[in-house]
Specification:
The complex is a heterodimer of chains A (163) and B (112). With 163 residues, chain A is mainly alpha-helical. Chain A is built from 8 helices and 2 strands; from the N terminus they run ααββαααααα. Chain A has one domain. Chain B is an alpha+beta fold and 112 residues long. Chain B has one domain: Winged helix-like DNA-binding domain superfamily/Winged helix DNA-binding domain (Arc Repressor Mutant, subunit A), CATH 1.10.10.10. Classes of the chains: A mainly alpha (163), B alpha+beta (112).
């Protein structure tokens, strides 16, 4: 299985395709693969912060170079992998369909994880930074997403590091 | 000791630069391409702020990159805003990779 096939398997299970035709599709795919990684499906891509939050140039490169075999040869996800997909899908709820909301969710998770190494050691600093970087999101939207991240219990260790 | 045209073992290495799209050979266009290489996409204002270019200069550079198929544009309507988003194309990604690879290989050979 190539990297492309691996990504395609997961995206197919999420009802998405690997087409990077539009801006919204590019955002959604990037944030989806980032969130899959958080839930335990590491497809081997490294993410760094730039403009729209966590981003992996190698993921874009991979998706720009399809194997040509596509659906015919794609493997099935095993039970454990399907559980990861379902857990992420349930966590995202209706945000799953929105590039904008996916961007907010993935960005906030990224900042909670990596903020302290980048002089963002408190909740207030992270939110201020996010508001500056992404003024399109209201404080209420950010607060709502923060609550969901907090309640999920997925990032308790990272949250406890914040002052 | 066999000599090559450029004093490199792989004489074809520098020639590979000739195959790259001409618009890439400009420092600011490379900066734009690198900015877009590392992002899903960016609008005009974001690029302007990141790169510190004037409106006129940025517009001219982007026009050349779009014309050569290295960058593509899209009207984005997410949220309440409408804006033009610039995104790197498959050709653009390949061009940047090739540029970096050629320079990297030349550097390696010179260092040997």
């Amino acid at each position: 299985m190539t990297s492309y096939d691996e990504v395609a398997v997961y995206l197919k299970n999420l009802g998405m395709d690997t087409n990077l035709g539009t801006f919204a599709e590019r955002v959604r795919v990037q944030k989806m693969v980032y969130m899959l990684k958080q839930f335990g499906a590491d497809l081997g891509f490294g993410f760094t912060w730039y403009l729209r939050g966590p981003y992996s140039p190698s993921l874009t490169k991979t998706l720009f170079n399809p194997t040509g075999e596509e659906d015919q040869s794609l493997r099935q996800l095993n039970t454990k992998e399907l559980e990861v997909v379902n857990a992420m899908r349930n966590f995202l709820g209706s945000d799953f369909y929105s590039a904008e909301r996916m961007e907010l969710m993935a960005s906030l998770v990224y900042l909670i994880k990596h903020g302290p190494e980048n002089d963002l050691q408190t909740r207030a600093k992270i939110i201020r930074f996010l508001r500056e970087e992404k003024p399109q999101y209201t404080s209420e939207e950010i607060e709502q997403v923060w609550q969901r991240i907090s309640v999920s219990g997925m990032w308790n260790d990272e949250l406890s590091r914040l002052r | 000791m066999p000599q090559t045209q450029f004093g490199l073992r792989s004489a074809s290495l520098p020639d590979r630069l000739l195959k790259l799209p001409p618009p890439i050979f400009n420092p600011n266009r490379i900066r734009i391409m690198l900015a877009l290489y590392n992002a899903v996409g960016a609008d005009f204002t974001e690029l302007k702020e990141k790169l510190g270019l004037t409106d006129g200069a940025l517009a001219t550079y982007l026009k050349a990159l779009v014309k050569d198929g290295l960058v593509t544009t899209e009207q984005d309507h997410t949220g309440n805003r409408e804006r033009t988003v610039y995104m790197i194309t498959r050709k653009g990604l390949k061009t940047i990779d090739e540029l970096l690879e050629v320079f990297g290989s030349i550097k390696e050979e010179i260092a040997q």
